[in-house]
Automatic annotation (TrEMBL):
Pfam families: RD3. The lineage of its organism: Eukaryota, Metazoa, Chordata, Craniata, Vertebrata. InterPro entries: RD3 (IPR028092). This is RD3 protein. The gene is Rd3. GO terms for biological process: retina development in camera-type eye.
């Protein structure tokens, strides 16, 4: 028996589970949310320590031990946020995270407020995606209308380029032939050449 069979070196590596892009977006965005909640808790504890330090004049922060994670969003809210995350296209995942970080840095929320900010950023991104899809749809409709309009315009322009092919009588044709023009029904005054 060979040593390689014991260690199973020649077996193909196990495949990573194939997840859909939507699942990866949901997982990524929810990980970002939980990380931001932890950061908000940490900042909140630091603010409380600073306040206590200023109030008492003594720093007992080294003596206090905090639990790693106090606040957690409810299961119903988590499911709602995950459902909103499924509406985000994978190409918008990065910009949504960047926007969420900007909003968190701007407002410096407490841990309870982070999920509401996340919801507002997701809603903003979903609205933007919907607007862009509608704009693309309108652009496609406009392009198809323009193609038909352009084909009609080229047809009309051909008749303008070659006016002598049409059966419309013009004054210039009558002058060239030396005949008397017929009475015009146009709104312009009639000019006759007297010889």
């Amino acid at each position: 028996m060979s040593l390689a069979s014991w260690f199973r070196w020649n077996e193909p590596p196990s495949r990573i589970s194939q997840r859909s892009p939507t699942e990866m977006v949901v997982e990524t965005l929810m990980m970002e949310l939980s990380w931001q909640i932890k950061q908000a808790e940490k900042q909140q504890r630091e603010r409380e320590n600073e306040y206590r330090k200023i109030k008492t004049g003594v720093d007992y922060g080294w003596l206090v031990s905090y639990p790693k994670h106090n606040y957690d969003i409810s299961q119903g809210e988590r499911l709602q946020l995950e459902d909103m995350c499924t509406k985000i296209h994978p190409s918008y995942c990065g910009p949504v995270i960047v926007r969420f970080r900007q909003v968190v840095a701007e407002y410096e929320p407490e841990a309870q407020e982070v999920s509401r900010l996340f919801r507002s950023v997701l809603q903003e991104a979903a609205d933007k995606i919907k607007e862009e899809e509608e704009a693309k749809k309108l652009a496609r409709q406009w392009n198809t209308k323009n193609r038909t309009t352009l084909s009609l315009a080229t047809f009309k322009s051909r008749s303008r380029i070659s006016p002598f092919i049409s059966d419309i009588k013009t004054i210039s044709e009558d002058v060239e032939r030396g005949t008397q023009p017929t009475r015009r029904v146009w709104s312009m005054p009639e000019f006759r050449n007297t010889k």
